[in-house]
Amino acid sequence: MEILMAMRNGDHRLTKRMAAWDSAWARRVLPPVEDAAEHTKLWWAAAVAMAAGGGWRGRKAAAAGITAMAVGELLSNGVAKQLVERPRPPKEWIPHDDVEERPDSSSFPSGHTCAAVAFTAGVALSWPWAGAACAVPMTLVALERVHSGAHYPSDVAAGAVIGLAAAALVRKAPSMFLRYTG
Predict the structure, then answer these.
(1) CB count, 10 Å around CB of 78?
(2) Is 124 in contact with 131 (CB distance < 8 Å)?
(3) Looking at domain 2-181, which CATH architecture does it have?
(4) Staple partner for 78: which of 25, 39, 74, 174, CB 3.0–4.6 Å?
(5) Cα–Cα distance measured from residue 144 to residue 31, given in angstroms and rounded to the nearest whole number
(6) Nearest-CA neighbor of 171 among 131, 115, 118, 133?
(7) pLDDT by residue (tens digit) across 107-166?
């Protein structure tokens, strides 16, 4: 029980510290990242660019990323958020205006982070260079979710784990299907 309390306290301290991070860079970069990631627009745009300009490999990577993202969102938003009702970080911890735009749904896990990680991991398994390029906005999405006060770091970590699991599942599903139906 002491370990859980220490983890919770560390999660709260890190949330406060990240939300209070005030730099010109954060004010300039993170809000547009949030806008682009809203409703997975960023990942759909990346998929379209890969499919249009990347040939067969780009289309394969785009399809893998979108499929992994869909599975990840189903698991995070459709299952985990329904099972775990965790309130968002308190508004008084967040010293900037972004706190007013937070969703009403459960804080756990971060669906934005799950989508970002699932898409990036799905792409990386098919086209490593494109996956590496997607890792930059993926990381910014994860940072932004805590900085804006929408999530605790543990919500972001859980979203990342679910996203990785979704990408792995999408990667293995065809061979598992063939093994059990063949």
Answers:
(1) 10
(2) yes
(3) Up-down Bundle (1.20)
(4) 74
(5) 8
(6) 118
(7) 999 999 999 999 999 999 999 999 999 999 999 999 999 998 899 999 999 999 999 999
Going from N- to C-terminal start, the domains of the chain cover 2-181
Q: Any idea what DSSP says for residue 74?
A: I
Radius of gyration of the chain (CA): 17
- DSSP characters over 37-67: HGGGHHHHHHHHHHHHHSHHHHHHHHHHHHH
Burial class (CB in 10 A: 0-12, 13-18, 19+), 155: buried
Tally of CA atoms within 13 A in the half-sphere of 144 that contains its CB: 27
Burial of 9: CB neighbours in 10 Å, binned 0-12, 13-18, 19+: exposed
| Amino acid present at 27 | R
Backbone dihedral angles phi then psi of residue 77, each to the nearest 5 degrees: -85, -35
Q: For residues 41 and 90, give the distance between their C-alpha atoms in angstroms, rounded to a whole number.
A: 28
- Residue 111 DSSP code: H
Note the pLDDT of residue 82.
Answer: 94
- Tokens representing 121 are 């991991």
Tell which residue, 133, 142, 4, has the closest CA to residue 58.
Answer: 133
